[in-house]
Every structure is written in structure tokens, then in C-alpha cells.
Design a protein that fits this description.
- A hairpin with a 5-residue loop joins strand 10 and strand 11.
- The chain folds into five domains: 278 residues, no CATH class; 137 residues, Hedgehog/Intein (Hint) domain (Endonuclease - Pi-scei, Chain A, domain 1); 50 residues, no CATH class; 200 residues, Endonuclease I-creI, CATH 3.10.28; 66 residues, no CATH class.
- The chain starts with a strand and ends with a helix.
- The chain contains 29 helices and 31 strands.
- The protein is globular.
- The protein is of the alpha+beta class and 878 residues long.
- Strands 1, 2, 3, 6, 28, 29, 30 and 31 form an eight-stranded mixed β-sheet that branches. The protein has a four-stranded antiparallel β-sheet with strand order 9-10-11-25, covered by helices on one side. A four-stranded antiparallel β-sheet has the order 13-12-24-16, with no helix packed on it.
């Protein structure tokens, strides 16, 4: 399957983006350094006109990348035509200074040796047009050819997990990048900056791995957005065109339906590490300098004694210990502090400590406290739990971690007071007072190891968790309930780090003290997922025999089913001459799946798939099998869409990343596609038109589609490697090639398959590639792939791109076609094969250079020069 790489770019980043674009499609595999490389430029006019010829930034981006990669023998070439001059065009399109800048030489094809060449393959038209023989540039033989032709987002509150475990909102991340880097505003008012952040992403084979976000977008929000909710409780607000990964590909939010399946990660692997903890606040909170105080002898206390008492007090030693040490009364102690205007702390537990780094024990204590504790405004830490094993562990950890002696004076209540520990908690991200409705998980934990996360979860579930047996289904589940929605979301994200799927939902309930129901949030873990979670955490309040019952219980498989097409599955089974019993002795199970009555579990489907692979010895169903492998990949789970709501946007901007190669990121626990896609224009195949045909190329216009296919056939014979890099930063719509309407589109693309790159560009402009004759002919001859469904697009998603471009004919093109193949085709030999053809050339030159360009063209150019791309063009020297 050929690859077409596509990136969106902007004037400030286009040079570097061309390098990334070429790297995405691994151009060095096709353009080997051992061979010389011809870089075929594209000149359609001596004068500069947007989207008409190779852009200067396109040329510089390619040369810079190849120069950095050590390509020495590059030949920058362009052909002369009856309407262009290779030197005037190179100057006015500002190529020459760029070529010189990178140490290469401009070599017009008018100055090289041409040799006779007899194509090895059967041609469609060229051998009939050039019946007296065909020539090509000698330098083309056995060398590489590189052609240079020319051609939304999520809510700011969406949570993003970075590769180091950091959890942040997409707004905070994008705004931070924008505050530290150069920011550009595109013509469609998108705001973008370039940086480099590692984030988890889903590969094309269904694996969660680390990718790089390189562009950070801020886009004006539309009036309406879509809120999508899933069965596991995940929800995200996106633009209507934002794609979600479904079993049949990426589908936009507005096309989703209830009960559709969309991908969520089963596990996000983060290689965390223990993190440095904040330092304690100094007991000397006013930062009083002991040496700046002027101590004076008193009637009872000497100046040295007073200084020692104050020094110890500022160091955090309790007043009782100080009074005993220096044999002074408490009233005398207070008198000394008042004398030197030192505030009395009036707090216990100043002489505490905290660990330098996080640990499993530290996070287990935090888990306990998040579940069963609260911190009041007077700095009291209150913990309530009646389980004796948990109480003993809490007391032990409090002493070991903080040097504070906790005790349970009542049956289940423990409390102590410490202003320093309270301020330490504030530094961790908590608020004060810390109560049920405002609890969250410290963001520091998300960067820690899985072992530390497991210990936090153990403490939390030991405090708040409850395991219940489902009598009807003979299975177990564990749930927690909280007034804090953010806490439940955080717990769900932490469990995901361990590879556990959980379900979040909003509930209304009341306690025995209330007369009405209140809103709470519930998180549940079921069946096999619960059994996997209990491998990580050892709950103190449930004995081992109870946990064995969970292991031996029936697992509910209604959720983690594989959304494979029953029709395709049946086709494969019957094609391999397998009966249902070959797959499963319980044939009704297979029948129910094939008839669409019920799903099939992941475990069972994998068994079916192994049998299918074993029997598909001649690889008749290799594509279907590969699709099934992606569906069953253990990195993802297929969640159910439970709600789709079109709502008014509550924000000014939506946000997005550009993640090359994979085109997606994980947001709010869902696989989200980066929607900043690209468009390009056609030209890769036709770019060979000038390089392989002399000035007689006008004779080919009558059979242009067949000629283009013949040229591609010849290229395949004579070149070691072929590659194309297209510029669609400014695309052309309407009457081509020289009188089009320039449209800023900000796209670039590359591929080693010229048919594929032209097909994708045609599709993005709004055409059906397989209805364009030369693409269809080339596809059918096996010269490349023209069906977009068979092309692997890397970089950006273009499934919803349609620029509705129109084709048209300038008067010159209309004249050409009428006299070559139209009503007056009988005059073709006279007009195009005699001296009269010089008048046709003069007519074309007059219309383009002296009529259209000074009037309509000049107006369009002036308008273009006010754009960011026009300003960039003006910065280049002629």
C-alpha cells in the first residue's frame, strides 16, 4: 500500500515542515544517495503567479532537507516550452538565489544532451505521436527523479495525558506553547505555534505508543459543537467535523449514531518515576533574621538566654519543650516573644518532616486520606475509618512519613493539627478546606510509577471501595461514589494506567439524614477487569477467600466484544470451507454472531481468528484478517456511544494538535483525531510532461491522458527512484494552468507513488480520482494506485476535506481544444503543424502576458501579496 504524507503548514514553519513531510514518508528509501538525483522544477509561466509554478519555499524546503541529509549530486532542472523561458522564469519565480544558497547549480534541460530512447513497454499514444523516434535527457538514465509540482478541534477543558504522565488540559498546553514560541495567524484565523511534545497516540496497527505533537492550534469556536458520551462514562466536546475512530474508519462527530462503537485506549503505558516533593514551609514563616534582633539583658532573663529561646522557637521546637529546656514558665516564654514582636504560632506539630520524594507508602497514605479524610480551615486533619487494620496502617504511615503521632481516641475518628502539613498539602494542589466535593488526585501522581499509582488506589479503594456480588449474573463488581466529579475522572485515568477499564456515571441518592436526593458520581469495575485490578492492590478489608470467589466467578462479556462485521466473517468462514463447528463446538454461539443477534467476546473472537489464519494458507483473505487483528488489538477497547448532543459552544476557541504519522491523540480517555488536515493540488504525473517531451509537446494535447500514462511508464523504466513533493500552500481553482483563482490552503504533501499523490490531491479538491482518465488508466496498468481507499495517508486526516474546486478553460485552452479535437479539428494539421503555429504561440502570449495578466491577473496578485504567503514571497530575492 503506497503512502501519501500530508501536513498543514504556515509561512513561519513551511521550510521545516517540508523536511518533516519528507521524513514522514521515508524519502531516503526511494531516493538513494549512490545515484544522482534530478529535481524537476515546474515552470508554467515566465511571470510569477500563485499556484502556477514551483514555489520558492517549496524549493528551499526540499533543498534544505536534502542538503542536511548529505545529498551532494543534485541537478536542479527545468525545460523550455514554446511559452516559457527557463532563465526568465527561474529569476521571476525566485529560484536562483535559493539554489545558489545551498551550493547547487541550475541546469536547464536546454543545455543537456538528449539521446534516442526506445521504450521497453507497450505505449498508448507516444509512439504514434513521435513515429520518427523519441528522445530523453541522457542524465535521466539510471538516476533518481524528484518532482516539485504545485497544487476541526476539541473543547479547551479536554484533558490530555503527556508521555511522562503529566495530566493537563489541551487549552493549558496550547496556551503554554503559544506563550513561549512564535505564534502565527493563518488566513482562516487559526492561531498556531510549533513546539515538540511527546504524547500517547494510536498507531495505524492499533498500538498505543508515544508520538510527537509538533503544531499547537487554537481555532475560533463555531456557534454549535457536539457533546459525545460513551458507555464507560467518557465524554468530550468537539467540533462537528471532529473524527472518532470506529471499526470502519474515522467518522465525524455529526455522523456518529447511538450504539456506534468508538475506540478508547485499554492501557496507557507511562514509564513514570518517583517525583520530588515540595519542601515544608519554614517554621520561621515571617523570615525573621535572628541576628537582626537586638537582645537586651532583663531583670530575669539574660540577652543570651532570650536569644536561645527565640532561635529554638523560630526553628519549630514546641513551646513546652523550650520552656522545659531553659527552665522558664510558659508566661515568661510568651513575654520574650511579645518583647521582640514575634507572632505566637499557637499550632501543634511544627517539628514535622516530609519525604524528599514520592513513594508507595506516601501515596497509600494520600489514598487513605482522599477516601476518608478532610482538612478543615483550622488545619485539622480528620480521618474516619472503623477498620482496625486500616487504622493501624494509617497510624504507622503518619508517624513514618511526617513524624506525627496519630491516634484513634474514639472508635473510628483520628485528628491532628499541623499548619506546616496543611501548607504542604496546598503545594501538592489540594484546597483548604478539603471536603468531599472538591477532592482531586494530585497531578504529581500521574508522573509516578505504576507501583506508586497502585498503592494510591489501594489506599483509596480500602477507604471508599465496596465489592458487591451480582446475584443474577453470578459475578462481582467494585464501586466507589464521590461528590467530586473530577476525583472520579482522575481515578478512572489512574486505573487506565494499569490497563483496567472502568465505568463512570452520574447518580442521585440520599442518606438517612437527607430528605432529598443529591448528585453524586459513581465509578465501577466489573468482572475480569476487577480481577485484574485486584492483582495490583491488596485490600485490607476483604479477606483472601473472598477474592478467590471473585476469580472463580462468571465474567460479564457484554461490553468488551469485537465489532467485526458478521457478513465479512461469514464470507471468510465459507470461503475457507469451514463449518461453524470448526470454530466453536457451541455452534449456536457462532450462528448468533453471524446473524447479528449478539456480539462475540474478545477472547472468543481471537480463537476464531487463529483458526481462520491457520486455514488461510494462500492468503486469500489477508486484508480482512489484518483488519480483524486491529479490531482485536489489546491496546484498544471498542466503547459504545450512548449520547450525542448538539449544543451551543461555551468557549471562544477550540484546540488541536498536529501529530504527524498517527494523526491522533488521547483526550478525556478517547482516541481523538487531530483535525487540522491538508489539501494539495494535482501535478506529480504531469510534471514529467516537460522533462521527457521536447518543445513539440503541443502535439500531445489531443491525447493528453494517454500521454501522461506513457510518460509514467517511461519514468519507471529509466529512473532508479521516483519521488514527488507537492506544494498546496496556495492552490488554484478554475481556468488552468495560468489563469486560475489562487486559494490559500496551507497544505503540502509527498509520496513515492505519483498516481497515489495525484489521486489524493484530486479527491481533496472535490473530484473523484477514478473518474479522471489518466489516473484511472495508470491505476489499471499497475503503475500506481488511484483508488483512495487503497492508499495509506500519513500525517493528516483528509476524509472530510472537500474544497469544491472547479475546472475551467481559458480562451486559449478552449481555442486549442476546439481546433485539435473539436468542431474544427480538420484545421489541426494546418494550424499546428505548419508555420502558422507561430501565430498561435503569439496569440497565447498576447492573451496571457499583455491582456489577462496586467488586468485580472494583477488584481489577483495584489490581493495575494497581502496574505502571509504573499509577504513570504516578497522576502525572497530575485
Amino acid at each position: 500500500m503506497p503512502k501519501v504524507a500530508i501536513l498543514r503548514t504556515s509561512p513561519g514553519f513551511v521550510i521545516e515542515d517540508y523536511g518533516r513531510l519528507m521524513q514522514l514518508v521515508e524519502y531516503k528509501k526511494y531516493i538513494k544517495k549512490v545515484n544522482d538525483t534530478i529535481i524537476k522544477l515546474n515552470l508554467s509561466w515566465n511571470l510569477y503567479f500563485p499556484a502556477c509554478s514551483t514555489q520558492p519555499w517549496q524549493l528551499e524546503g526540499v533543498l534544505k532537507k536534502m542538503n542536511e541529509d548529505g545529498y551532494k549530486n543534485l541537478h536542479l532542472m527545468e525545460n523550455k516550452t514554446v511559452v516559457t523561458d527557463v532563465w526568465k522564469g527561474a529569476k521571476r519565480n525566485k529560484w536562483l538565489p535559493i539554489i545558489e544558497k545551498y551550493g547547487y547549480k541550475y541546469e536547464p534541460l536546454t543545455d543537456v544532451e538528449w539521446i534516442d530512447y526506445k521504450p521497453k513497454s507497450e505505449l498508448l499514444a507516444l509512439d504514434k505521436i513521435f513515429d520518427d523516434g523519441y528522445q530523453i535527457p541522457k542524465i535521466f538514465m539510471g538516476n533518481n527523479m524528484l518532482h516539485l509540482p504545485t497544487v476541526k478541534c476539541v473543547h479547551p477543558d479536554t484533558e490530555i495525558m503527556l508521555a511522562d504522565g503529566t495530566l493537563t488540559t489541551i487549552k493549558d498546553m496550547v496556551e503554554e506553547v503559544h506563550s513561549k514560541n512564535e505564534v502565527l495567524i493563518t488566513n482562516d484565523n487559526d492561531i498556531v505555534a510549533t513546539s515538540n511534545h511527546d504524547i500517547p497516540t494510536l498507531t495505524h496497527k492499533g498500538h498505543i505508543t508515544n508520538g510527537k505533537a509538533i503544531q499547537f492550534w487554537k481555532t475560533p469556536s463555531p456557534k454549535y459543537v457536539f457533546k459525545v458520551k460513551t458507555k464507560t462514562g467518557r465524554e468530550v466536546i468537539v467540533s462537528e467535523i471532529h473524527p472518532f475512530l470506529t471499526p470502519i474508519g474515522w467518522i465525524s462527530a455529526k455522523e456518529l449514531k447511538i450504539k456506534d462503537r468508538i475506540a478508547i485506549p485499554r492501557k496507557i503505558s507511562i514509564f513514570g518515576k518517583s517525583q520530588r516533593l515540595p519542601k515544608l514551609t519554614s517554621p520561621n514563616r515571617l523570615h525573621i533574621g535572628i541576628n537582626r534582633l537586638k537582645f537586651k539583658d532583663g531583670y530575669i532573663f539574660s540577652s543570651n538566654l532570650q536569644k536561645s529561646i527565640v532561635r529554638d522557637y523560630l526553628a519549630g521546637i514546641q513551646r513546652r519543650l523550650i520552656a522545659n529546656k531553659y527552665k522558664v514558665s510558659i508566661s515568661g516564654f510568651k513575654y520574650i516573644l511579645r518583647k521582640y514582636k514575634i507572632p505566637i504560632r499557637n499550632q501543634r506539630n511544627w517539628n514535622i518532616r516530609v519525604p524528599n520524594y514520592t513513594s508507595k507508602e506516601f501515596w497509600r497514605w494520600v489514598g487513605y486520606f482522599i477516601a476518608e479524610g478532610h482538612l478543615d480551615k483550622n488545619n485539622y486533619f480528620i480521618f474516619v475509618n472503623s477498620n482496625k487494620a486500616i487504622q493501624r496502617d494509617y497510624i504507622k504511615l503518619t508517624k513514618k512519613l511526617f513524624n506525627i503521632k496519630a491516634s484513634f481516641k474514639r472508635v473510628k475518628d483520628s485528628q491532628f493539627r499541623s499548619i506546616q502539613l496543611a501548607e504542604f498539602f496546598l503545594k501538592l494542589g489540594f484546597v483548604q478546606p478539603l471536603i468531599a466535593g472538591n477532592k482531586t488526585v494530585p497531578r504529581l501522581l500521574f508522573k509516578c510509577t505504576n507501583d506508586e499509582i497502585a498503592q494510591f488506589l489501594q489506599g483509596y479503594f480500602d477507604g471508599d471501595g465496596c465489592i458487591v456480588k451480582r446475584s443474577k449474573k453470578k459475578s462481582y463488581y467494585m464501586y466507589v461514589t464521590s461528590k467530586s466529579k473530577q476525583l472520579i475522572v482522575d481515578i478512572q485515568n489512574l486505573i487506565l494506567r494499569l490497563g483496567i477499564i472502568s465505568f463512570k456515571k452520574k447518580i442521585f441518592t440520599k442518606s438517612q439524614d437527607w430528605t432529598y436526593k443529591k448528585k453524586y458520581y459513581n465509578l465501577s469495575v466489573y468482572g475480569n477487569e476487577l480481577f485484574k485490578l485486584l492483582k495490583y492492590i491488596k485490600l485490607k478489608k476483604y479477606h483472601s477467600e473472598y477474592l478467590k470467589d471473585i476469580k472463580n466467578s462468571k465474567w460479564d462479556t457484554n461490553f468488551d466484544t469485537i465489532p467485526a462485521s458478521p457478513i465479512i466473517f461469514r464470507k471468510i468462514r465459507e470461503g475457507l470451507k469451514l463449518i461453524r463447528k470448526d470454530l466453536n463446538k457451541k455452534i449456536n454461539t457462532v450462528a448468533s454472531f453471524e446473524n447479528g443477534w449478539r456480539g462475540v467476546s474478545r477472547t472468543m473472537f481471537k480463537r476464531y481468528l487463529q483458526i481462520i489464519i491457520k486455514n488461510d494458507k494462500d492468503h486469500s483473505f489477508i486484508e480482512e484478517i489484518n483488519h480483524f487483528k486491529i479490531l482485536t488489538n489489546d491496546s484498544i477497547v471498542w466503547d459504545f456511544v450512548e449520547g450525542i448532543e448538539k449544543i451551543e459552544s461555551d468557549c471562544d476557541f477550540l484546540y488541536d494538535f498536529t501529530v504527524p504519522s498517527t494523526n491522533n491523540f488521547i483526550g478525556n480517555g478517547l482516541v481523538l483525531h487531530n483535525t487540522h488536515g491538508h489539501t494539495v493540488i494535482t501535478g506529480a504525473i504531469k510534471n514529467a510532461f516537460g522533462s521527457l517531451i521536447t518543445e513539440k509537446r503541443h502535439h500531445c494535447h489531443a491525447r493528453i491522458h494517454e500521454v501522461l500514462v506513457d510518460l509514467l511508464t517511461i519514468q519507471k523504466e529509466i529512473h532508479k527512484g521516483i519521488f514527488a513533493v507537492m506544494d498546496g500552500t496556495v492552490a488554484g481553482s478554475g481556468n488552468g494552468p495560468r489563469t486560475m483563482i489562487p486559494v490559500v490552503k496551507n497544505y503540502i504533501l509527498a509520496s513515492n507513488d505519483q498516481v497515489a499523490i495525484d489521486a489524493i490531491s484530486a479527491k481533496m479538491m472535490g473530484f473523484d480520482p477514478m473518474k479522471i482518465q489518466f489516473i484511472k488508466l495508470a491505476h489499471d496498468k499497475g503503475l500506481g494506485l488511484g483508488d483512495p481507499a487503497q492508499i495509506d495517508i500519513v500525517g493528516e486526516d483528509i476524509s472530510n476535506v472537500n474544497f469544491n474546486f472547479k475546472t475551467g478553460k481559458s480562451p486559449v485552452i478552449y481555442f486549442d481544444q476546439v481546433f485539435r479535437a473539436g468542431t474544427f479539428s480538420f484545421l489541426e494539421p494546418l494550424l499546428f503543424h505548419t508555420g502558422l503555429f507561430a501565430l498561435c504561440i503569439k496569440g497565447s502570449e498576447y492573451y496571457h502576458d499583455y491582456l489577462w495578466y496586467p488586468t485580472i491577473g494583477r488584481y489577483k496578485i495584489r490581493k495575494f501579496m497581502k496574505t502571509d504567503w504573499g509577504e513570504l514571497f516578497l522576502k525572497y530575492h530575485s
